[in-house]
User: What shape does this take?
Amino acid sequence: MTSQSQGINQLLQAEKRAKDKLEEAKKRKVKRLKQAKEEAMAEIDQYRMQKDKEFRLKQSKIMGSQSNLSDEIEEKILEKIQALNGSYNRYMESVITQLLSMVCDMKPEIHVNYRATN
Assistant: This one.
């Protein structure tokens, strides 16, 4: 009987050791998974920062060139406005004089297409 209870005790101890080893293996697995997850998150963050930096660089190049274009367009517009104002001031009097002479200096004439119906 003692050998039988000894055998049972050995089996129970072996089962307990196996269970402990399984739990230890599970803990190692969970620990490795957490470590892998942390490494992956760090790699993702590094990649995200790199791409964000590249995006900001491209954006600054594009936006910088757009601001330069808008400055150039604004300069051209101002030059055009100044040219138009100069042209207006230069020709204003002659145009007004010409209009007034056409309106005020009327010469009554018979139109060339008018036919007498007698």
Q: What stands out?
A: The chain is about 85% helix and 0% strand. Residues 2-104 form the longest helix (103 residues).
